[in-house]
C-alpha cells in the first residue's frame, strides 16, 4: 500500500489530476512563505474538486500529508474555518455510525445527509482502527502546519463543534457504538483539541449530562482523568438527575465517582423522577438527605415520590422535624397544599392542625383550620346531621312513586352514605381530614353497630360503613 502521492494521483484521477498535480508540483517549499502569497493563489472550483478526488485516492499518511502541504502552499489560509468544519464533520460521521436511528425524529432527518458518507455495512467494515489512526495523525499534522494561525479560542470552538452532534444524537446511539472504532476516533479528536488549548470540557460535561449523552459523558470523564482536568462531576450528576437521565447518572456515579447525593436526589424529587430517587435510596442515603428530599417532593406536590420516600425516612427523625417540614412544604408549594395534605393523611403528625405557631404561613393555617382542626371535625359532624335530617324528611314526606321506606335497608344506607364512603376511599392515606372524619363518625354512630371508641381509626370506621352497604357497591368486581 505504500505508494507516494504522485503515483496515487496518476492512478486514480486521470488527466485532470495530472494537470492539477503539475500545477501544484513545486508547492511543497511554499508552506512557510508569507501568508499574503496564499491569498493570491485561490483555486477554481474545478481544481478544488480535483483535490477532493486526490484525497480519496491517497492511501497512506505520507500521501495525505503531501496533499495538505500543497493545498496550504497554494492558497489555503482560513485555518479557523477548516478546523471547525473538520471537527464538526468528523463528529457527525462518528455519531452516524450508530445504526439505531428513529426516522420520525427531526434529529434523524438532519443526520440523513451525513449517512451518505456511511455507505452501509461496507463502509462500516472499512472504518477500522488503523484507518482512524491515519485520520487522527493527519489531523495532528494539519494542526502542526497551522501553527500560530490558530488560537486557544479557535480550538475551544472546534471542541464545541465536535461535542455538539454527540449531544444532539444522544437519544439515537446504539449501545454497540461505545465499543466501536468510532469511539476511538471521537476520543482522539477531542484529546487533540484539548492538548492544543480547548478549555470547555466541564461545560460540555454538564450539557451532555443534561441531554443524556452518556457516551460523550464517558469520553469526557476519561479525558479529564488522563489530563488531570478540573470538572464538576457532582453538578453534572445533578443535571442528569434533574432531567431524569438514568443511564447518564449511573455513569457519573460509577465511573465519575460522584459522591454528593443530596443535590441530585432533591432535584429528582422535585421533578418527580421516581426511578432516579429509587436509585439513590438503594445506593444509600443519610437520614437528613431523605427528610430533605421528602420536603422537596411534597413542596412540588410530587405525591408518588413522597409516598416512596416516607417509609424510608426514620420515624424518630420525622417526629422531630415534622412541623418544620410542613412549614417549608407550605412555603414552597406555590399555592397548592396537596403535599401538605398528603403528609397529614399519611399520619405524619398528630397535632399540627391545632398548632398556634405564628410562623405558620396564613394559607397553610387556613387550610389546616378548614380540614384538620377541631372546628373542622365539628363541622363534619354537623353536616352529616343535617344530611340525616333531610333524608328522614324524604323518607317520611316524600311524594315520589318509589317510597324509600319500602327499599331494603342496605339500599337506604347506600343512598344516604355511599357518596361519603367513596369520598373517604378517594382521600387515601392512613388518616382522614378532620372534616371527613367528623362526617364518617356521625354516620357510623347513626348506624349503631358498635361503640364509637372502638372505631376511631379510618380503616375501622370504613369497615363499619362497608358492613351496611350492599356488597355489589363495595366490591364491584
UniProtKB/TrEMBL annotation:
Q: Which InterPro entries match?
A: Ankyrin_rpt-contain_sf, SKIP35
User: What protein is this chain from?
Assistant: Uncharacterized protein
From which source organism is this entry?
Answer: Cinchona calisaya
Amino acid at each position: 500500500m505504500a505508494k507516494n502521492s504522485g503515483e496515487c494521483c496518476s492512478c486514480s484521477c486521470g488527466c485532470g489530476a495530472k494537470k492539477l498535480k503539475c500545477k501544484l508540483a513545486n508547492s511543497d517549499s511554499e508552506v512557510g512563505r508569507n501568508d499574503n502569497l496564499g491569498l493570491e493563489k485561490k483555486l477554481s472550483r474545478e481544481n478544488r474538486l480535483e483535490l477532493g478526488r486526490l484525497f480519496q485516492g491517497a492511501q497512506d499518511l505520507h500521501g495525505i500529508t503531501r496533499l495538505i502541504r500543497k493545498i496550504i502552499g497554494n492558497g489555503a489560509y482560513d485555518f479557523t474555518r477548516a478546523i471547525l468544519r473538520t471537527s464538526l464533520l468528523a463528529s457527525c460521521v462518528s455519531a452516524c455510525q450508530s445504526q439505531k436511528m428513529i426516522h420520525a425524529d427531526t434529529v434523524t432527518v438532519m443526520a440523513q445527509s451525513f449517512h451518505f458518507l456511511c455507505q452501509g455495512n461496507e463502509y462500516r467494515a472499512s472504518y477500522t482502527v488503523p484507518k482512524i489512526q491515519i485520520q487522527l495523525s493527519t489531523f495532528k499534522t494539519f494542526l502542526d502546519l497551522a501553527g500560530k494561525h490558530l488560537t486557544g479560542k479557535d480550538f475551544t470552538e472546534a471542541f464545541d463543534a465536535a461535542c455538539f452532534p454527540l449531544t444532539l444524537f444522544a437519544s439515537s446511539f446504539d449501545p454497540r457504538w461505545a465499543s466501536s472504532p468510532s469511539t476511538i476516533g471521537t476520543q482522539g479528536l477531542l484529546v487533540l483539541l484539548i492538548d492544543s488549548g480547548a478549555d470547555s470540557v466541564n461545560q460540555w460535561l454538564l450539557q451532555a449530562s443534561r441531554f443524556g449523552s452518556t457516551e460523550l459523558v464517558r469520553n469526557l470523564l476519561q479525558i479529564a482523568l488522563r489530563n488531570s482536568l478540573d470538572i464538576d462531576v457532582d453538578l453534572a450528576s445533578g443535571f442528569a438527575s434533574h432531567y431524569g437521565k438514568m443511564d447518564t447518572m449511573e455513569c457519573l456515579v460509577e465511573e465519575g465517582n460522584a459522591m454528593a447525593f443530596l443535590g441530585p436526589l432533591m432535584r429528582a424529587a422535585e421533578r418527580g423522577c421516581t426511578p432516579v430517587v429509587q436509585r439513590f435510596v438503594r445506593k444509600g442515603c443519610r437520614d437528613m438527605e431523605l427528610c430533605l428530599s421528602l420536603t422537596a417532593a411534597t413542596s412540588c406536590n410530587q405525591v408518588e415520590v413522597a409516598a416512596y420516600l416516607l417509609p424510608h425516612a426514620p420515624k424518630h427523625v420525622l417526629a422531630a422535624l415534622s412541623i418544620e417540614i410542613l412549614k417549608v412544604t407550605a412555603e414552597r408549594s406555590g399555592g397548592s397544599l396537596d403535599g401538605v395534605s398528603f403528609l397529614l393523611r399519611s399520619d405524619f403528625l398528630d397535632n399540627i392542625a391545632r398548632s398556634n405557631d405564628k410562623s405558620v404561613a396564613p394559607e397553610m393555617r387556613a387550610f389546616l383550620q378548614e380540614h384538620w382542626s377541631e372546628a373542622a371535625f365539628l363541622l363534619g359532624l354537623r353536616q352529616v346531621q343535617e344530611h340525616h335530617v333531610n333524608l328522614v324528611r324524604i323518607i317520611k314526606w316524600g311524594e315520589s312513586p318509589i317510597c324509600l321506606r319500602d327499599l331494603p335497608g342496605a339500599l337506604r344506607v347506600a343512598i344516604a352514605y355511599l357518596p361519603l364512603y367513596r369520598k373517604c376511599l378517594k382521600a387515601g392515606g392512613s388518616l382522614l381530614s378532620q372534616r371527613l372524619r367528623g362526617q364518617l363518625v356521625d354516620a357510623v354512630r347513626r348506624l349503631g353497630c358498635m361503640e364509637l371508641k372502638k372505631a376511631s381509626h379510618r380503616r375501622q370506621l370504613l369497615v363499619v360503613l362497608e358492613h351496611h352497604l350492599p356488597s355489589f357497591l363495595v366490591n364491584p368486581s
